[in-house]
Amino acid sequence: MDGTGEHLWPRSYGLKRRPSLTDLHNIRPADANVNSSRGNKYYGGCAATSKKCARPANREAAPDTETDSERWAPPFQVRGDVARSLMYMAVSYGSGQKDAAPHLELSDSPSIRGGWVSFQLFYNGMN
Questions:
Q1: 37-57, pLDDT tens digit by residue?
Q2: What is the pTM of this model?
């Protein structure tokens, strides 16, 4: 495994500077190839109507991962951890913070800000 640090909340969705960019609650060890495959997709399961859902999400990813054109589902054993990290980031660096904060948000319209809140609430109870 070629390791790297994965930003759970992608840098391209508002993380420009410290402290949000380097917050260790948002960085996890990851396989470089798997991290590259995820890119900046939102965390969540494949849409029920998705005809292009790949399982596993990458040939080097855990067998219980999945991905489509918009979403990436991590392994079951870490889905709750990922959800709590994303919720932490939204609270710590959300719209209620100082102007220098990136104003991160979770919603069910992820193109607005940063992620599927309904998936994160569901994942939170998983582990």
A1: 999 898 888 887 888 999 999
A2: 0.84
